Fold Signal transducer and activator of transcription.
Amino acid sequence: EKQPCMPTHPQKPLIIKTGVQFTTKVRLLVKLPEVDYQLKVKTTFDKSRQFFILTNNTKVMDIEDYSNGCLSVEFRHLGLLSVTEELHSLSFEACFTVQGLTIDLETCSLPLVVISNVSQLPGGWASVMWYNLLTDEPRNLAFFGNPPRATWSQLSEVLSWQFSTFAGQGLNKDQLSMLGEKLLGQHASCSDYQVSWSKFSKENIPGKPFSFWMWLDSILELIKKHLLPVWNENYIMGFVSKETERTLLKDREPGTFLLRFSESHLGGITFTWVEHKDNGEVKFNSVEPYTKNRLSALPFADIIRDYKVISDGVVPENPLKFLYPDIPKDEAFGRLYNCQPIHPYIPSHLIPISVQ
Amino acid sequence: EKQPCMPTHPQKPLIIKTGVQFTTKVRLLVKLPEVDYQLKVKTTFDKSRQFFILTNNTKVMDIEDYSNGCLSVEFRHLGLLSVTEELHSLSFEACFTVQGLTIDLETCSLPLVVISNVSQLPGGWASVMWYNLLTDEPRNLAFFGNPPRATWSQLSEVLSWQFSTFAGQGLNKDQLSMLGEKLLGQHASCSDYQVSWSKFSKENIPGKPFSFWMWLDSILELIKKHLLPVWNENYIMGFVSKETERTLLKDREPGTFLLRFSESHLGGITFTWVEHKDNGEVKFNSVEPYTKNRLSALPFADIIRDYKVISDGVVPENPLKFLYPDIPKDEAFGRLYNCQPIHPYIPSHLIPISVQ
DNA sequence: ACAGTTTCCCGTAAATGC
DNA sequence: TGCATTTACGGGAAACTG
């Protein structure tokens, strides 16, 4: 009778932040005989933290834990979901009478995530994606008590869709296969290999202090805020392993470069260029990744235009000549350069330099 | 019996921002015979906009205004004070009984300014300063209906005190005299020349889109956030007219520079250095002022260390040699330079460059 | 149309809770 | 103690309002 509906968050539906207003719409899909009948709709919000006891969480009583004089084992935080996994829902109730017949209506929203700080938005959005990717149930609030796995083919489609939706340009085969390998190792070639929820957004990437999704989302944010034109021109290869990067660059003209996202820092982009030494040796150079702070001081296209390497006392030179495979730099980025403002002072801008 | 007291705002007392918590303390200065008598204190806030009819605001009925069929003249916003001139006050009431004697107590805070956004903080602080500089009345809420003038000697003391309080280092005679000239023209030499409230913080500086105080406060903020060590070493001359600047620099060693605040932009600092051309001509160069955005990308001391001018194809050179009058640059700023972080990448930092 | 003012809310930092 | 979560609020921008 009514439709489950969604509160709107700018760009990220189904996520509600405390202290921030949201909107929701309820439509009655039945045409009533009386036209100006006023229907009161009551809205209620389930507001209770949810606890799930996970069945496979067994512990053994151990002599080690002999703290308060008896054998004991503590089950702490048992199955307590993190805020962003906790699903809530808005319910709507209404009651009306037509021709002596009283009808109760009730419906509810799709599961919602409630956060208290925007820092929780990436986690919340991961939950919304996972839920909507893997179930059609309208209101399974216990979903993250035991979340199902996704196949890589399902997940990769969602990831690409994130980029096309939020950044305008999706991910190509090569980019996705780098992501698959990062997430799954060698199994990525098999598209029905399965990814767990935990691997996707809870566990840290080995050796890194962030999960796969946190990393990927930080890149999405970087693109949205600082790289949109460059990204949409497809000039950012972005997701390339260092090995592939070298394979691609090694036979290229000296000064050929490509743009890739940092794998060690959140929300960073770097460029790597190839150089041919006098002895015939091929050398690869990368700059320290640019993050949102640095990109807000100087737009990325201008960094590429102005980048210089100063070897002591020698005329500084911009080593970036051709965007991989062989597009002359200014031909690719020319339109994206920002004009220098004119001032009564000597125009001074920040030029990104590497000192060797 | 009680003391007028003040809510505390970080660093800026007597200013309250809507939606932001504040604290106030009321002390009873009478010692009561019963020790654990509980005294209830009721707090009330005057919350009404205040309107003042300024007497000298006359208008003439004019045929021009013949819009609704009769001669009319509109008195709009008549004497309505701006929010930051509107003074409020917190009142405290209490009543207690000792030995059959009932005593009513009442006191109130010094006048308060209520703002709704930090962007109003400078204006609010100007009001607090002016009030406390020019009256001892504890509660003259109509003060800005007709605010008195300040002598330059009073005002300059307050201004210097702003710098010593918020930035650690006050203003010297030369700096103050530049400020006085800026505010008063040639009259500044006469220390009992009077400054109006309007000239101080309401009217724009001729040809500029901001008032004297807005300009000065933007510099205070810049110092607080980005220039504290340099300021406290007294390395920033800061308030120097361009004429004086040239007089000071022209006979100095080439490469002698000084640091001054921009007079055309809010919250900007620039450096000017002197250069001796081959033909004996003396040339002065200034960079486009650095503002908080640029200074947060690269600290000011590092800018001075790394600043380079590139004349096409020539080895870039740092033209800054001696801080006025004759301190070798690195001797002055050496301790203030920031270390470069070490990275697996080529360390790239933003270098401020002028291209000629 | 516009300027003064308030509201909105992201994002950082600090506080709190477990 | 450390980690997860919330609170606090500055600051930029949009919305409001006379």
